[in-house]
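Regression report. Comparing outputs from two consecutive submissions.

Submission 1:
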Amino acid sequence: MQASSISATETRQTGNRIVVAGLVAIVLILLGAAALLFINLPDANAFNARVERLFVENDNLTAQAEIKLLEILAQSGTAFSDTLNSYRVVIFVLLVFATAMLIAAVAFLVMLIALNRRMGQIERQGIEVNSLMISRDQNLVYLNNFEFKLTEAAIETLSVLAEARMDDEVLSGAEIEAVISGRDAADCDEAAGATRIKRLRDMLGNQMVSELLVRNIARRGYMLAIDKDVIRMV
């Protein structure tokens, strides 16, 4: 049992390390892509530098129309520089958003996988019940401190199953009906006990809880799928 616990702990730690490594890899990949993108973007002042070069190399342009053309080119260079800077900001914001979305997607995926595994364990092992207290006087059942109000018939059925579980017994439908009605099992109908089990499950409400709490063993009967040491009856 201890070896199994150690193995489960090591598996969980390995899984956590893999998840962290995956998240770090996503961040590094996006940072690398961002760096390459910003490096390959043209210089915001490249257009202004070309316009300035035109001014220097063509200082003999003195006509009013020529000067006006150079001024327009200079203004266009400034506008291009501002636009490129705004593009850099937009790209940076989009990369940050993409990083956050990818991390969130991985986190939700890991949570979903863990939840599916937990549900699988519950399906295989049944409900993990820490305490089951049955109060016949008040027709109440406390399951892990959750209170269920049942009918008197459902309480009787659950009490019979609890007593059988404490004795490590599995009861058929006819035997359950015999214990409750006080008759001999040979004189009782199997369907009557099965009906009592169905009504008990309906009273418990949650289908998954009721189906896993009251287990049906093929060709043998019914039993509570919990540790008998947690059962208390008052």
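Submission 2:
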Amino acid sequence: MTTKPPSSYPYVPLPDRQPLRFPGGARVAVILTINIEYWEQERPGQKEPLFPGGPATIPHVLPGDVWDSANWTWREYGQRIGIWRLMEAFDEAGVAPSCTFNGLLAVERRRIIDAVNERGWELVPHNWAQNDLLTYYAGKPDEEKAVIRRTLDTYEKVVGRPAKAWLSSAIRGSRHTPAFLKEFGIVAYCDYLNDDQPYLIDTVNGPIVCVPYSNDVNDFNMFARGAASTRDGIDMLKACFDQLHKEGAKTGRIMNFGLHPHVIGQPHRIAALAEFLAYVKARENVWFPTREELATWYLGVAGEHMPQLASKGAVTGR
């Protein structure tokens, strides 16, 4: 006797899907994700570094139970300076990003959350602490569920409404994560990197929409890990958008650009964001949805139990 996994999804290759038609004839749904992250300064007894996935701003990262002042304060630059530079860029462009944040940031840096909330931008929970990955609780689902519940409770208290989307810190969720989120009323789960379109994840608590993330179209991989110049970054973003816009004439695509205030928020890189926003705004057939908006729309047009399989008709907006 086999036990049903807590979450799963079908493999549906692109040629076997119905055409996806976004509202208003949009070819591309562009999601600009600002990840406003907060790390614990140290964790007693932890010998692994607190910054999973890196990179380090200087080498020889210290154990997690020792305060690594250089690497911690490099990231804190995003909270003190970078996020405000990003807010100014988005305000000037008239584009609303989707902002993820850790529950601990809401406790330690409430000023940032209030500023985002006042702008009416989407806020998405991003686990309790950036360094406390849900995969650390593999095999301990009750503990994972408690971390998620604590994060969501803090979110509702600080933001003033329940969360509807979720992105795990370091995009590391477990097989239980989508099911727990569905149980707690989340409609959009955003950890997976495997698609350019939304799709349904089946969970023991019912379906939840995957709104895919990108680790390639991401300032960390472009600049901090990849050492791209600002000009290289602009060219890469434009090339990605142009290709998806072209393909979107046949079936809609998502472009997610992941941003970190301590990376793209540096003074020598902010021009990459400003130029890209201007470039995209000048194009037609572009949609800037929130994750909640995209997931809710997709549930409405795809049906709660219908994967995006081929048929005679198209999946269309209303």
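Expected: both submissions complete independently.
Actual: both completed, but the second showed a warning that disappeared on reload.
Relevant detail on submission 2: Residues 7 and 175 are 6 Å apart (CA to CA).
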